[in-house]
Amino acid sequence: MPHSYLAPLGVYGFEPVEPVILAALVTEDPLLLVGPCGTGKTYLLNSLSEALGLEHRHYNASLIAFDDLVGFPFPDDERSSVHYLETPATVWGAESVLVDEINRCRPEHQNRLFSLVHERRIQGLKLERLRFRWAAMNPASLDQRPGDSYSGAEPLDMALADRFAFIVDVADWADLSDEDQALVADPRGDGRVSDDGGALAAALGAWRRRYEALLSDPPEYVVGYARRVAGLLGQSGLRISPRRARQIARSLLGLSAVRGAELGEDDARLILRWSLPHRAWGQQPAEEALHGAHRIAWDATFADGREKWLHDFLSDPRMSGRARRLFRAPDADTCAIAVARALAGPNRADNAAFAFALYPAAVEGRLAITREGLTDLARLAKEVLHVNGTITWQEPHQWKDTTHPELVRHAQVTGKLRGGRKERAIQIFHWCLVREHVLPDPAAFENEFNETVKTVRSHAESRRVAA
């Protein structure tokens, strides 16, 4: 972008996130601004509607009644259907909608706003003219700093937050440059209609045409990056829904249309940062997880040959998925490298289960892997096969003859299993107890482990039959 499109509207301090705001205009996907009171969230969004000449509606979610949105229902003359008595405030003719204070909204209204944000519908009826859905909120209670007081501001419902393509933090006073502070403090802009002479509207028309062309044939690197980064974030504890992965790809295409060129790494990082809905529901994404997932996904997207295969292998969040990929490794050396990198991961319980599931097939020669790779698998698999140690109580307790608390959780899982599956589960659970690995969800862990065993057996049998 050669210059700012927001500054001519009297909107200052948004330069770091302006490309994201413009990408949201291009894609016409929902945008949520998060920031303390008085930081210009509603001013920005109302200014955009003025500059674009939109039929705009601005609702305060903490005060709104549903009749304010749809009007008053009344039956037609035949009493066979219901119409709504419209007012200048109803949503039916709107081209843009701003829902302010959305996280102060009563739950029943939040549910009704869901379809407005997600589908451009109210009461199941399509809002034919609606293009832009915007919202603003103060930081949720979990995110408040000392001295902040946003009574009634709650973390946003996770499902609703996931419908917003962009969740953008707005800069507070201390985050503004001296120049922006001076511009914001200048009172001469009060009450002025935002008018840039049509510059933003003209640019948006061109960007939108470019975006639609990209959407019909998206570049492989955009889809590849979105796919990989979603898996990597999931491994870091930041679950990304399948819908969100597609949304990231759409957002990347939107910014590419604004740039008029292939995106750079900084562009992808910027889109990713402001595409995560977790902040809206009170979970602050760890900077290390965000940067690490982006870095690996970006490198993998442009890697060739073995490195690209290895990146894709490590980006797969599931043990069973990784096992399936191993049987399709380009060669035995690549398979060995993949195993070594997988077993070096931070989750030792997953690593042990992975080695335990793969080891029989590798020993029988059903998995194409080097001797070094087999040794890596054996080192951890044999620990599980021949687990030996003392299970100690680490928690304070006051009753005699009590058992280790993890034994109870594990027994709730193994008690429902039968045959070989039960024996394997007990083996890996005992290893976890001896090694003092607490499983957040033993049932989910066992299910994924069993799925991995089934995957290995299926592919090993196919290899034997083919041989």
Order of helices and strands: HEHEHEEEHEEEHEHHHHHHHHHHHHHH
Q: Rg to the nearest angstrom?
A: 27 Å
Domain unit count = 2
Helix content: 40-55%
Could you name the ranges where pLDDT drops below 50 across 5 or more consecutive residues?
A: none
**What CATH architecture of the largest domain would you give?**
3-Layer(aba) Sandwich
CATH class of the largest domain: Alpha Beta
Q: What's the end-to-end separation, in Å? A: 58 Å
Per the CATH scheme, the topology name of the largest domain is: Rossmann fold
Largest sheet: 5 strands, parallel
How would you name the CATH homologous superfamily of the largest domain? P-loop containing nucleotide triphosphate hydrolases
General form: elongated
Instruction: Give the averaged pLDDT, no decimals.
Output: 89
Description:
With 467 residues, the protein is an alpha/beta fold. The chain has two domains: 191 residues, 3-Layer(aba) Sandwich (Rossmann fold), CATH 3.40.50.300; 160 residues, no CATH class. It has 19 helices and nine strands. The strands form three sheets. The protein has a five-stranded parallel sheet, with helices on one face. Strand 6 and strand 7 form a beta hairpin. The chain starts with 17 loop residues before the first helix and ends with a helix. The model has no long low-confidence stretch (mean pLDDT 89).
Question: What is this structure's SSE topology?
Answer:
Layout (H helix, E strand, L loop, with lengths): L17 H10 L3 E4 L6 H11 L4 E5 L5 H5 L1 E4 L6 E4 L10 E5 L6 H13 L1 E2 L2 E2 L5 E6 L20 H4 L4 E4 L8 H8 L13 H18 L3 H16 L6 H18 L5 H9 L13 H15 L3 H11 L3 H8 L5 H12 L4 H16 L7 H15 L19 H10 L4 H16 L7 H25 L1
Parallel strand pairs: 1-8, 1-9, 2-5, 5-8
Antiparallel strand pairs: 3-4, 6-7
Helix pairs in contact: 1-7, 1-9, 7-9, 8-9, 8-11, 9-10, 10-11, 11-12, 12-14, 13-19, 14-16, 15-16, 15-19, 17-18
